[in-house]
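Folded chain entry
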Amino acid sequence: MSFDWTAPARWARTAAYRTASPIDNAWRRAAGRTPLPPLWLRRHAGDVRFFETAATETAAWIDRLGLLSGSRLVLDAGCGPGSMVEEFLKRLPVDGRYVGFDVHAPSIRWCRRRWAREPRAAFSLAQTQSPYGASRAPQTPYRFPVGDGETDLVLAKSLFTHLLEADARHYLSETRRALAPGRAAVITAFLFRADADGLETAFPHTAGNARVRSRARPSRAVAWEKERFVGMIEDAGLRLQWHSAGYYPGRPRLDAQDILLLGH
């Protein structure tokens, strides 16, 4: 097994964010800003600079497509520390429900405290094996915390970018199970064309049928040849309705994720 040479830098960065979090929280309170998760949790979910803007941009994209029209239940798969919660609660009706789940226990604990008095929001800890969680349970049997055909919109933002094939296939199947007839799922991924220039710069290693950025931490960033990933979508009983290119067809820099709209 390869040694992860980036681990000490990650630990030091997390420690620095933990130290700075109380200062950031005090500044936000003094400025009358909306409460946010502590910096170290925001960093766990991605670049802290884009925590808020990424959520508002995702919500605006969903609005443009009218995906929340008539919705009663939204499932946020891999919700992290809840960047999308307020965006969905603003758009759901009074009898609507938001359900988020994640493997990262600190994120789920923070969400449960933050929205403890919000009856429309529920958060579930996914007890499944993952580099981002502590559970030893295998990932494949994990069942999304909603009933069959109960969900009007499934959002999986920056989730499939961390899943290898067995897990990605299972999560696609669970997405299909959860979706109500005629409703949609929005997922993001890194997709590429096999002959794209620069692919080996951004994703230099292989892991099964995927390409990964780090051999030591393959789930850090996972990319798929587009045709193969579309085949996985179809194998799960879903179909690709629309694709907004981000990384595709494959570039040296990971400056955007591909957005995919899926339906039955």
Summary: The longest strand covers residues 179-192. The chain is about 35% helix and 20% strand. The CA atoms of residues 53 and 83 lie 10 Å apart. The radius of gyration is 18 Å.
